[in-house]
Amino acid sequence: MRKNPEPAGTAAEEAGTGDLPPAVPRQSRARGVLLLAAAWPMGLAGFWQALAAFDHWQDARLRSTMAVDAFGPRAPWWYPTVVAGALIVAGAVALGTVRAVVLRRPPGGQGFGRLRLFLPIMAFNSVPGLWGADSPLPWWDLGLLIPLVAVSAQTLLFGARRLAVLGRQHLAEIIRSPAELRRNSFTLYLRSFEDDVRRTALEENERPAPGPGAVVSDLGLSTRTEEEQLAQALKPVAPMVAVGRPGERLPLVGARRLYLPIDDWQDTVWDLMGRARLVVMAVGLGPGLLWEFREATRLLPAERLVLLVPGREEYETFRAQAAPPGQDAVRPGQAGDAWAPPALPAYPDSEPPAGLTLKGAVYFDVDWAPHFVLFGAGRSRNRLGGVVRAAMEEGLEPVFDRYRPGRHR
Prior knowledge:
By secondary structure, this protein is an alpha/beta fold. The chain contains 13 helices and ten strands. An eight-stranded mixed beta sheet has the order 1-4-3-2-5-6-9-10. Strands 7-8 form a two-stranded antiparallel sheet. α1 (29-62) runs antiparallel to α5, α3 packs across α5 and α4 (109-125) packs antiparallel against α5 (139-171). The chain is elongated and about 75 Å long. The two termini are 30 Å apart.
């Protein structure tokens, strides 16, 4: 029986309590379908308003009605669109105020993102002489109404994506018992519970285009969370499975969740590592993750372990803590052989694109020789499935190649 380390907030550490049954989230399939259905008209309304703001802006730039007649709303529709946008923005502000004052939840980055969108567009459109002396639009259209409709469009587009995520949470599959998982039929995803907040984020444009074109570029953002993109990237190997956080109201989307009812989480996780086709671990702080890393390197063949790197500081701290402690352990079935976890490579001097929250990964050859890859450094620019998915598929191609049909496992 392995001795438990101090609690550290990892996904395995809080897997259960005594002999009590696991607290499985209560889902509603009807609510999930309803939320997904509601996301579509909200997204279409955001799409319409994004084109309305962009077309009205283009009309001023081109000093003609060509752009409006071509693919956008005609002039009589502009002011009703503005009224609808004002109501949506006012509702969003009121909701944010209630959350901050009544529920004591401070505004998040998304709320400030709306302000960061409004102010640059207003400033850009208000530059004297930008439109010439014969601008076809009044100053309030350029300086106030176009930014207002752009912010409304972004609010609707983000709200539609968030509603869709909530709907998928109600429809997410929950694994009732570890016995349901056959050997080599799944990828085990290990991480700190604190990583769940980052991995459930939706993509944002880090460097939006100037003017209302910034909102049009939002139309190309993935509707999937980062964890869903991880799961999609790993799907050719095997579906992703993770231990769910006890007490969460709904399962997160991406990995299929397993809720453990036992207090000795290490035995269950140790068994899952041995039966997984691939083990993917997001490095972080805490003795729980360190134990999982050391057990994975002791138990698994080297090619079945991949480490995901969220950032330089976290990785270097983990690397220092995971350094070989000495020859005081043995591998299973090799009682006479000394063993220590492999030394991890240093974080490279360069950095990947700023928009990537997962910066890179470490994978191993059969002799535990490590390889550190930075994501987003290659030639691929395919964003249709999301930037995280595209970066993983490109950076970890040598790992995925091991699992292609016809390759030796």
